Amino acid sequence: MTISAIAIFIAVLVAGFAKGISGMGLPVVATPVLTLLFDLQTAIAITIVPALLTDIIMLIRTPKNWGLIKNAASLMMFGMCGIAVGSYALVRIHPSILSAVLGVIILLFVGTSFFAVFPAIKQRRRLDAAVGFIAGTAQGAAGASGPIISMYMLQMKMSRDEFLFMINSFFVTIDVIQLMTVYKLGLYHGPVIYYSIGAIVPALLALAAAFALQKKISDQVFRYSVLIMMTLSASALLFKSIQTML
Fold first, then answer.
1. In angstroms, what CA-CA distances link 162 with 10, 103, 186, 205?
2. Helices 219-245 & 146-154, crossing angle to 10 degrees?
3. In 10 A of CB 235, how many CB atoms?
4. Rounded CA gap, 143 and 179, in Å?
5. Taking Cα atoms as reference points, which of 23, 21, 37 lies closest to residue 9?
6. Are the C-beta atoms of 213 and 219 separated by less than 8 Å?
7. What is the pLDDT of residues 147-188, one digit of tens each?
8. The predicted structure's pLDDT at residue 200
9. Sign of the torsion angle spanned by Cα atoms 75, 77, 83, 88
10. Which three-class secondary structure string do you get for the chain?
């Protein structure tokens, strides 16, 4: 097994466990770590397949509230539009710029969340559209819609089940679009497709382990676990961006 394969296995294993505990997308942890070894385009291509699979599993296991999806139609629709824009940016704009901006936004949100600076919000169609588009663009350009969509949903003060259902519904929707887009961009070349398929194994192993512990975790610990995952993701993004710019 090559060093690259070992690194992918470990990164996706940790990301899969984080996915099962916090509900956030697998790329939130895996993509920033993989960019330390690969370019951003390759890191995104590797994580899409295991991410889609784990998102589908999470969605199947979560209690359904289809009324939430109906109210969030614009969130999903504009998220898909954002994927197209972000994927275009992925091959046109220097990724370190996008990663740095996203990292700063995430860290600012996490810092203010601990002090309850942001008021709780209610779903609004226009706000849904804006957040969906921004999150979709971030996913396409940097593989990181999770922190943005989590920022939005955490401020709605949803229950754990509602949060998991909504966020994984969004992830599955944009994952499918991103997979098709990345394929059309020709990013699945050489060993990348094999790395992506192989990453399914550690993702499923970690997800199973996380499910065994998930019910034992309180809502407060659950919320903090989301914020911690966002912090780790943002820190990795900033580290990579600064390293690239120097």
1. 30, 26, 36, 25
2. 140
3. 14
4. 11
5. 37
6. no
7. 788 778 877 777 888 888 988 999 999 999 999 999 988 889
8. 96
9. negative
10. CCHHHHHHHHHHHHHHHHHHHHCCCCHHHHHHHHCCCCCHHHHHHHHHHHHHHHHHHHHHHCCCCHHHHHHCHHHHHHHHHHHHHHHHHHCCCCHHHHHHHHHHHHHHHHHHHCCCCCCCCCCCHHHHHHHHHHHHHHHHHHCCCHHHHHHHHHCCCCCHHHHHHHHHHHHHHHHHHHHHHHHHCCCCCCCHHHHHHHCHHHHHHHHHHHHHHHCCCCHHHHHHHHHHHHHHHHHHHHHHHHHHHC
The CA distance from 191 to 194, in Å, is 5
Paired tokens of 10: 């470990």
Kindly list the distances between the CA atom of residue 135 and the CA atoms of 13, 149, 191, 214, in Å, as whole numbers in the listed order. Answer: 24, 6, 29, 26
d(CA 239, CA 189) in angstroms, rounded, equals 27
Q: Tell me the CA distances in angstroms from 10 to 15, 95, 169, 195, one per residue in order.
A: 8, 24, 26, 13
Give the pair of three-digit tokens for residue 2. 């090559």
231-240 pLDDT per residue, tens: 877 787 788 7
